């Protein structure tokens, strides 16, 4: 086989193997550097590990494969529009578990597009929400003591912890 | 390919994930919350600040005071000085039936006329019985130190601080009466100005401190238009009759005579109030006035009754 491979194999932090096409892998800066440095071929023993769990990596690869054609060739407006809709559907996921990991993975893999998307999704989830609703969505415990809450309420009339 | 999901994460770690998000990531998220929501009261960003301690810290770093951002975010923003360069434009709508006035920043009202019963009651405007002098009171909770000094850990009740006075000069109406039109009303006010509030809202104690030296403001003198036979002021957006409307500029310290007029043509307008519809008024205010003070000033205008009329 020649050195110009179509897809590479990577390992998740759980030890599972995943295939990702080269063009999709290029969306991540660290993966791109790796592609430039290492000669990937079928007889290459070394399989790079990506410190992302399998469940998340599946999603990340799905995103990369979808966005790669556009990133590499540029796309028409209608494509962009379609991609936007796809992004919205794609981000409908469990907040506590997957969204968190996607965000961390996008940051770790330097994937600007996915990182923006994850941040915006998290921000949009808070739109018009009360404090307790946000806590529920993100599974956050209220770590203010009742004294602290009382004091803050006094200093900021109208401040709510519920 | 088999998908093997690793054992469930440590429960504690999982629970606190979003709480312990690296600060750069949390910053990027909360920044987006702030940017996508511009109408007041912006509940989401306000909620972010109370979710948990780490979120509060980041939110406070992101949200700048109105002086810097030109935006009102927290309830306290109403008492913070407006931006220096571009005034914040608000609307006041009058409800004649209930004689209440609502302050609008966008489509939603964000303050009413300081009713004491309201949960968001923040201050008070009180006139003397002739309706030409008004005092503005700010309601604040005493600081921790003061409360401690007063001896007692009981919950301290809010106090009233006088933060400004407004005087209307009625005699100008007599003065111009022979024109058989209503003359311009003159007003002067003294405002205690807030101490330079930290650029972020990061100070622990949100009590508002005031400068010792009050800010002096006076109404801009309208120009008599010979052709149309009326007084007018050049407003940013409107050129309207001057009777109801006013513009306030800062008054020099030394002036106390009431008839030196012409000189301050290009003075910076700190508050502009104009009627644009039957019961709708615009209120543009900027540094160093706060929305609270500006609103109080405008409300006094509704109540001030020219004696000669």
Automatic annotation (TrEMBL), chain A:
Tell me the ranges covered by the SKP1 component POZ domain, including all copies.
Answer: 8-67
What keywords is this UniProt entry annotated with?
Ubl conjugation pathway
Please give the superkingdom of this protein's source. Answer: Eukaryota
Q: Does the keyword Nucleotide-binding apply?
A: no
In which pathway does this enzyme or protein participate?
Protein modification; protein ubiquitination
Which GO terms of type biological process are on file?
jasmonic acid mediated signaling pathway; protein ubiquitination; ubiquitin-dependent protein catabolic process
State whether keyword Electron transport applies: no
Q: Which SMART domains match?
A: Skp1
In this protein, which residues make up the domain named SKP1 component dimerisation? 113-157
Q: Where is the signal peptide?
A: none
Q: Which InterPro entries does the protein's record reference?
A: SKP1, SKP1-like, SKP1-like_dim_sf, SKP1/BTB/POZ_sf, Skp1_comp_dimer, Skp1_comp_POZ
Q: Name one Pfam family in it.
A: Skp1_POZ
Q: How does it assemble?
A: Part of a SCF (SKP1-cullin-F-box) protein ligase complex.
Record family assignment: Belongs to the SKP1 family.
Q: What does this protein do?
A: Involved in ubiquitination and subsequent proteasomal degradation of target proteins. Together with CUL1, RBX1 and a F-box protein, it forms a SCF E3 ubiquitin ligase complex. The functional specificity of this complex depends on the type of F-box protein. In the SCF complex, it serves as an adapter that links the F-box protein to CUL1.
| UniProt protein name | SKP1-like protein
UniProtKB/TrEMBL annotation, chain B:
Pfam families per UniProt:
F-box-like, Tub
Q: Which residues form the Tubby C-terminal domain?
A: 111-303
Q: Which residue ranges does the record assign to the F-box domain? A: 18-60
InterPro entries to which the protein is assigned, alphabetical: F-box-like_dom_sf (IPR036047), F-box_dom (IPR001810), Tubby-like_C (IPR025659), Tubby_C (IPR000007)
Protein family membership: Belongs to the TUB family.
Q: What is this protein called?
A: Uncharacterized protein
Q: What are the leading ranks of the lineage?
A: Eukaryota, Viridiplantae, Streptophyta, Embryophyta, Tracheophyta
């Amino acid at each position: 086989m020649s050195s110009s491979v179509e897809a590479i194999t990577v390992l998740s932090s759980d030890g599972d193997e995943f295939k990702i096409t080269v063009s999709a892998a290029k969306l991540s800066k660290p993966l791109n550097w790796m592609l430039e440095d290492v000669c990937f071929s079928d007889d290459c023993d070394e399989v790079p590990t990506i410190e992302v769990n399998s469940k998340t990596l599946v999603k990340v690869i799905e995103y990369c494969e979808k966005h790669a054609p556009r990133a590499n060739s540029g796309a028409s407006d209608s494509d962009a529009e379609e991609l936007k809709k796809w992004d919205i559907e794609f981000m409908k996921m469990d907040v506590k578990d997957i969204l968190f990991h996607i965000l961390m993975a996008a940051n770790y893999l330097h994937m600007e597009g996915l990182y923006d998307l994850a941040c915006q999704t998290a921000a949009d989830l808070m739109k018009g929400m009360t404090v307790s609703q946000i806590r529920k969505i993100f599974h956050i415990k209220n770590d203010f003591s009742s004294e602290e809450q009382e004091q803050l309420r006094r200093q900021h009339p109208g401040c709510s912890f519920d | 390919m088999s998908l093997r999901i690793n054992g469930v994460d440590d429960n504690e770690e999982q629970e606190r994930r979003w709480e312990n998000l690296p600060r750069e990531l949390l910053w990027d998220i909360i920044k987006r919350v702030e940017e996508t929501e511009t109408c007041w009261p912006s509940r989401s960003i306000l909620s972010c600040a109370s979710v948990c301690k780490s979120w509060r810290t980041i939110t406070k770093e992101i949200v700048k005071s109105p002086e810097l951002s030109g935006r009102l975010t927290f309830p306290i923003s109403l008492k913070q000085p407006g931006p220096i360069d571009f005034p914040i434009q608000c609307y006041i709508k009058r409800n004649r039936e209930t004689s209440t006035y609502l302050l609008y920043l966008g489509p939603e009202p964000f303050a009413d006329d300081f009713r004491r019963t309201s949960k968001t009651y923040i201050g008070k405007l009180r006139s003397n019985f002739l309706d030409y002098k008004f005092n503005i009171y700010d309601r604040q909770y005493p600081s921790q130190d003061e409360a401690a000094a007063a001896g007692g850990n009981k919950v301290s009740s809010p106090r009233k601080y006088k933060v400004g006075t407004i005087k209307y000069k009625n005699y100008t109406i007599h003065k111009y009466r022979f024109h058989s039109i209503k003359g311009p009303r003159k007003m002067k006010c003294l405002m205690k100005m807030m101490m330079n509030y930290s650029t972020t809202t990061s100070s622990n104690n949100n009590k508002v401190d005031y400068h010792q030296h009050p800010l002096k403001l006076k109404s801009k003198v309208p120009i008599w238009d010979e052709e149309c036979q009326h007084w007018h002021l050049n407003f940013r957006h409107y050129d309207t009759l001057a009777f109801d409307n006013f513009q306030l500029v800062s008054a020099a310290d030394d002036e106390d005579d009431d008839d030196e007029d012409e000189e301050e043509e290009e003075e910076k307008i700190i508050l502009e109030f104009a009627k644009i519809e039957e019961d709708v008024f615009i209120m543009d205010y900027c540094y160093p006035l706060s929305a609270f003070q500006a609103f109080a000033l405008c409300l006094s205008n509704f109540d001030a009754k020219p004696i000669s009329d």
